[in-house]
Design a protein that fits this description.
11 helices, Serine Threonine Protein Phosphatase 5, Tetratricopeptide repeat, mainly alpha, Methane Monooxygenase Hydroxylase, Chain G, domain 1, 328 residues
Length: 328
């Protein structure tokens, strides 16, 4: 408020003085005798400048002033790490105070960022040991090795399967496979013994669970016994084994129609028994068995000619041979 009054007073004095010095109006007549010194040649201009400056001061004093806006406080990211320490006043000897220097705005200083220690790496648990193969997985691998002729590796898998077998069903399977392997290697005695052991376990399984699956398990073991006995010339034992196996497979009542392996096993069983019947002179009985096998082989070949076509051709050739013997 005081600054406004001072501005108005100074403005009035300057404006009035300029008005008078410039000689404007009736008031300027008495000031014409005043000597302005070096500004005398410029009396009108000097008066006009003084009047304008005075008027400007008056106008500036009368205009409303804008209130200064507050500066936005700087945003603080995070908490301060340490409390602010206030400076304590320190007494000093009296000295001559110079003119105050312009105050510089102090920029806020961000608190120092403390380095964060990286977490120590956690020790990784060792990978779990590989799970041992199951009996079923080993048997799948055995079949693949047998088809590929890798007999040494197949023998190792058979030994592992024998150790892994726990149930009577698994023991019946592994001993039947051992019989097949020994027969393929020309070891007739070992094959016959393995097949007999397989039949023993299969009979126990069949007694506990008399269903289609156990019937095929026992029939497969008996077929192995029949093959081994026929190779050794024990035809009565072979005939008995093949007949029992055929009875078990026929007990399914045609339910093997959806099982390709079971159908082929039945066809082979019929032909094995037919060959033994022919050796005993029962050619008509043998021909009937071959005709039954031929019907099954025909259905298999129609579904998969590449796989079962050769079997159908062989069965047809044996039928023609038997028919020729009977007619001749």
């Amino acid at each position: 408020m005081l600054a406004r009054l001072v501005g108005i007073i100074l403005g009035v004095i300057l404006a009035t003085s300029g008005y008078v010095v410039a000689g404007w109006g009736s008031l300027g007549a008495w000031a014409t005798s005043l000597d302005l010194g070096p500004f005398e040649p410029h009396r009108p201009a000097a008066g006009a400048v003084a009047a304008i400056v005075g008027g400007g001061l008056i106008i500036a004093a009368l205009l409303p002033r804008r209130k200064p806006k507050k500066k936005a406080a700087p945003m603080a990211f995070g908490m301060a790490l340490e409390p602010t320490v206030q400076a304590q006043p320190v007494s000093a000897p009296p000295v001559h105070t110079p003119a105050p220097a312009p105050v510089q705005q102090v920029q806020p200083v961000a608190p120092p960022v403390m380095p964060v220690a990286a977490p120590a790496p956690q020790p990784q648990a060792p990978p779990p040991p590989p799970q041992p193969e199951t009996f079923a997985q080993m048997r799948v691998r055995l079949v693949a090795l047998s088809h590929g002729g890798s007999w040494a590796e197949a023998a190792r898998i058979l030994t592992a399967m024998k150790r892994a077998a726990q149930t009577n069903e698994e023991l019946a399977i592994v001993y039947r496979d051992l019989g097949d392997f020994a027969r393929g290697q020309g070891q007739a005695d070992e094959a016959a013994e393995a097949y007999e052991t397989s039949v023993s376990y299969a009979r126990e399984v069949r007694q506990a669970r008399p269903n289609d699956d156990t019937a095929e398990l026992l029939a497969g073991a008996l077929s192995g016994v029949g093959d081994a006995a026929e190779a050794e010339g024990r035809l009565d034992a072979a005939l008995s084994a093949f007949e029992e196996a055929l009875a078990l497979r026929r007990s399914r009542g045609g339910r093997e129609a959806g099982d390709t392996q079971a159908q082929r096993a039945l066809s082979v069983n019929l032909e094995r028994l037919a060959d033994l019947r022919e050796d005993r002179g029962h050619r008509m009985r043998a021909l009937d068995l071959y005709r039954e096998s031929y019907d099954i082989a025909g259905r298999l070949a129609a579904a998969d000619p590449a796989r079962f076509g050769p079997d159908l051709a062989a069965t047809r050739a044996r039928m023609n041979e038997l028919e020729a013997k009977i007619q001749g």
